[in-house]
Amino acid sequence: MLKVREITAKSVLNKSKIFDYCLNPYTGCQINCAYCYARLFMRRYSDVKINAAELLSWQLDKARPGTVWISSVCDPYQPLEAKYGLTRRCLMELAKKGFPVNIQTKSSLVLRDVDVFQGFETIEVGFTITTDDERIASFFEPGATPVEERMKALQKIHSLRIKTFAFLGPLLPGNPQRLIQRLEGKVDEVLIDKMNYIRSIRGLYYHLGFQKEMTDSFFRQQKERLIGELETRGMKYQVLF
User: Fold this and answer.
1) Where are the domains of the chain?
2) Which class is domain 122-241?
């Protein structure tokens, strides 16, 4: 059972190695993905930074312009967000101050905030999608929105002329060609990454009988199949490994 603590944070806008800044309204994540590297240090708790929006407003006044990544170590639309609304309130501050934003999630709760997204000059909204197989996804991402619902959410956001992307990583067993077929017309770009293994994921792979899916050759083959389908369909992509 995830323990939830309401805290007063000292900082929510921090430097990032991927974007200019990262913003985490929560510490800890209810999505509970088996492959998440953050599980190593977050364990089984979640801090709710109840002063996130007010603190962010103060930090933005002092920050140089740059892109803000929401979030780096938690899903900004995990179930807690439905109660606390910290991500939404932070987005409103970012829109007010004119900071570009990149949002990455596995939850269709993101659709709640499309009205806020439309107030940005520059914003990207993306879903992590690791497989097209709902059964596989349920093993590895027990708290995530089903894959089909993520696809529908991408379609909705994309239809509003908001830039969208799909992050395909870590690459789990499934059908790469079918996954790209389902993404066509829903995203502006596809990002591809492989697995960074932690002890818990190795145990789950062995339990499910996926030994060959832990090899470099599996990732190479999946990458080649993804790229082949993307290029056939003329879709923009980046490979991160």
Assistant:
1) 1-120, 122-241
2) alpha beta
